[in-house]
Amino acid sequence: MAKKTFLDFEQPVAELEAKIEELRYVQTESAVDITLEIEQLSKKSQQLTKDIYSDLSPWQVTKISRHPERPYTLDYIHGIFTDFVEMHGDRHFADDLSIVGGLARFNGQACMVLGQQKGRDTKERTLRNFGMSKPEGYRKALRLMKTAEKFKLPVFTFVDTPGAYPGIDAEERGQSEAIGRNIFEMAQLEVPIITTIIGEGGSGGALAISVADQVLMLQYSVYSVISPEGCASILWKTSEKAEVAADALGITAHRLKALGLVDKIVNEPVGGAHRDTDQMVSFLKRALGDAWRQVADLKPKELLERRYERLNSYGRFTDTKAGK
Known about the structure:
There is one protein chain. This protein is α/β, with parallel strands linked by helices. The chain has helices spanning about 10-30, 35-55, 60-65, 75-80, 120-125, 135-150, 170, 175-190, 205, 230-235, 240-250, 255-260, 275-295, 300-315, and strands at about 80-85, 100-105, 110-115, 155-160, 195-200, 215-220, 220-225, 265. The chain is built from 14 helices and 8 strands.
């Protein structure tokens, strides 16, 4: 059994799980039957996890969204889609491995699927730049989306990035233009776009592949204009205020759903998506099917009108000025 990674606020659960593992080892090595004790502790661990996860702060949710064992884009692609054929390169500069994508089938329907991929170990994380894309990554994503438009295929995108890569080389090759171009082109794409925030949805790096007709968000993912650490560094000149910033930013799924910025929250297994990847894949596949049915029969003109209205609805406010 693979060793689980527990976050700081999950330590009471970690201690219980350690005791359960010890008892399992004792039972294996001796003739003593302690199955009942193991079952009781397992139930206690499950209930404790439920209690902890029923009252999470935005900062704790941020930590879950970054969990190293959390399912990534390729996990969902291989679990939900069939006949996936990866496509590479932006036809201008290079193949950015922080964004993966290609042709696939969703419930038999041909489609284009793409998203950010962080990497599991140090070597892969370095190779994929920790899910932080450079301009060529966004241009690759746009090339795939334009290909989907050409062949009238729906587009499924998965967002999981701390943000676009802020390095000098990325700026030299037009990072902001690449992000802006994607947002501009996605707003006019004449095929359905369904986006899911599966982990971190950070800044323009997320927006560049999330202008969509339906936006889904996993229960313990986050979506924001800036990371809590970045916000804290700007406002308080120290990243130590990240917890305060996370609370102020309103980055959690329920807060964003209330604001109308996401359409549906996809529930995660007890303890987060990483505790049961198969179940999470099943939940998300069902949610994507529901989202697809809502846009599948719309003509391009209807699709664009709805998308335009949707974009214009962001940021509305009510004037409560006295005397008016």
